[in-house]
Specification:
Elements lengths: L18 H31 L5 H5 L3 H24 L14 H23 L1
Length: about 120
């Protein structure tokens, strides 16, 4: 038995209507796609270059990526908490209207982006 009611149309997600959010998502999507393409090509490149490696030993090269993702989540949470406390916030307290949360987040982002550039500059 079929229903005479038409199916409701699914509205487009709200973030697709914001140009700045769409730009950020597309930039992150491109970098993530390139990273995945690089990671998936490693196993075939290593097996062609090093005949003595089997699939198990080649698969070990993916462990640091997963481990770094897990550890960076914990580390970045602590860094953001420390910066929040340093800017005047307290744990568990409600954020007042005067508190500039975006400034704290921006400082953390700036510091995290500057660090790899400094390391590359020092090492050449």
């Amino acid at each position: 038995m079929t229903s005479s009611m038409p199916k409701p149309k699914r509205p487009a997600p709200v973030f697709l209507k914001w140009p700045d959010a769409l730009l950020l998502l597309s930039a992150y999507a491109c970098s993530f796609g390139l990273f995945q393409a690089l990671m998936t090509s490693i196993s075939s490149a290593l097996s062609d270059s090093y005949k003595y490696l089997n699939q198990s030993t080649i698969g070990l090269c993916f462990l640091p990526v997963g481990l770094s993702i897990c550890l960076s989540g914990v580390y970045m949470g602590r860094v953001v908490d420390r910066e929040f406390r340093r800017a005047g916030g307290t744990r568990g307290a409600k954020i007042s209207v005067e508190f500039d949360l975006e400034k704290v987040r921006s400082l953390v982002r700036l510091r995290m982006r500057r660090t790899p550039a400094e390391k590359l500059d020092r090492r050449g």
